[in-house]
Amino acid sequence: MRHLVQCRTAELGGHVDKCDLCGYLRVSYNSCRDRHCPKCQGIKRAEWLHERLERLLPIPYFHVVFTLPAELKPLFQCNMRLAVNLLFKTASTTLKQTARDSKHLGADIGFTAILHTWGQNLQFHPHLHCVVTGGGLSLDGTEWVPGRKQYFLPVKVLGKLFRGKFLHALSKCREKEQLVLAGDAKPLAESHQWKNLITELYTKDWVVYAKPPFGGPESVFRYLGRYTHRVAISNNRLQSFEDGKVTFKVRDYTDASRRKPLTIDSVEFIRRFLLHVLPKQLVRIRHYGILAGRNVNGKLRDAKKLLEPHPNPSSDKHAKLKSLPWWEKLLVLMNFDVLACPNCEAGHLSPCAFDVRHLSSVAAPLDTS
Predict the structure, then answer these.
(1) Which among 90, 303, 333, 358 could disulfide-bond with 165, CB atoms 3.0 to 4.6 Å apart, if both were Cys?
(2) What is d(CA 80, CA 74) in angstroms, rounded to the nearest whole number?
């Protein structure tokens, strides 16, 4: 919370830039670079999206979402690190195992999984978004096995397998006393309460959603890219803060094209936001199958050769991008020249020597909203 409050304020210091033509001075305060900050990570997000689009194969992709039942939310919140790892592990093995089955596809697929823990109203809602290749590399690696254009894998099979794998893994963790049972999850310390929960969850249909991505895989990655390096809510959804209450925009599910205002107490707003702060070093974007890091120069390269036998020769754009300074990355990835003078629109800004402690008296700070 301290990081977010101090972000881009004089508390973190900053620097002054001066235009080489008109002499205009611009104050820029330093950012906190916290991965939960709604104002930071813009360049990292753009780089991540660029790398994902560079690795797209010329095939259809599918958007698959794994959602946990509401009954598991208290347990998930008390065991965030363990539960997130279980969610990734069971969902990924479900997809890979089903795809390798000769009754379905009989091939090795690739997918990127991204953890979301929030809904539009900021309540806790853990789920995984997966962008999955519509086909896979044959098990012997000699050919590409295409999937159907409008049908990926049977969602009922995925749901049942995912349910069984997750509940089995969760029960094993309880047997090994690895679960923290506190707060709303405290009653589960009783054996009969635990058995009742597991029995109830086995009788429920677990939701697995799958459909071809609207507008193609690029549009899904661009959509998910807004949330990969940001948590819960962005600044543009905030409308007002009055009388101790926060008003922000949420999607109207009766009309997906509309947004409606939601007003809640400021303390409740902070509580909901903090529900989504992840434990340190917990990775929330992971790649599997032929898209896994260890397979990029192996199976993924083989798949590209099979799908594009005679690709146009091109340089490694991503490698070149990594060597650029941050302001050039912004220009390439986001078409935004941060060094252009906003006053005369002809000159360029360059660092100017000023005491950081007197930044506020030099010029108005840069509006970072």
Answers:
(1) 90
(2) 10
What is the Cβ-side half-sphere exposure of residue 284, based on CA atoms within 13 angstroms? 22
Helix (H) or strand (E) holding 53: helix 42-54
**Residue 179 in contact with residue 173, Cβ under 8 Å?**
yes
3-state helix, strand, coil in the chain (%, to 5): 40, 20, 40
Chain centroid to CA 2: how far? 23
Note whether 276 and 231 are within 8 A (CB). yes
Number of structural domains, the chain?
Answer: 3
DSSP annotation of 141: S
Secondary structure of 225-266 in the HEC alphabet? HHHHCCCCCCHHHEEEEECCEEEEEEECCCCCCCEEEEEEEH
Query: What angle in degrees, to the nearest 10, is found between the helix axes of 217-228 and 42-54?
Result: 160
* Gap between the Cα atoms of 220 and 223, Å rounded: 5
Q: Are 111 and 22 in contact (CB under 8 A)?
A: no
Rounded Cα distance between 282 and 366, Å, is 32
Q: In terms of residue numbers, what domain contains 119?
A: 59-232+275-307
* pLDDT tens column, 140-167: 989 999 987 767 788 899 999 999 999 9
210 and 340 in a common domain:
no
Contacts of 125 (CB under 8 A, 6+ apart): 67, 116, 117, 118, 119
For the stretch 33-74, pLDDT in tens is 888 888 887 778 888 888 887 788 888 888 899 999 999 999
340 belongs to a structural domain: yes
Question: Do 148 and 29 belong to one domain?
Answer: no
Domain membership of residue 317 (yes or no) is no
Asked whether residue 54 is assigned to any structural domain, the reply reads no
Q: How many CB atoms lie within 10 A of CB 283?
A: 10
Provide the pairing of β-strand 107-108 with 124-133.
unpaired
Ranges 272-276, 305-309, 354-358, most confident = 272-276
Are 75 and 170 in a shared domain?
yes
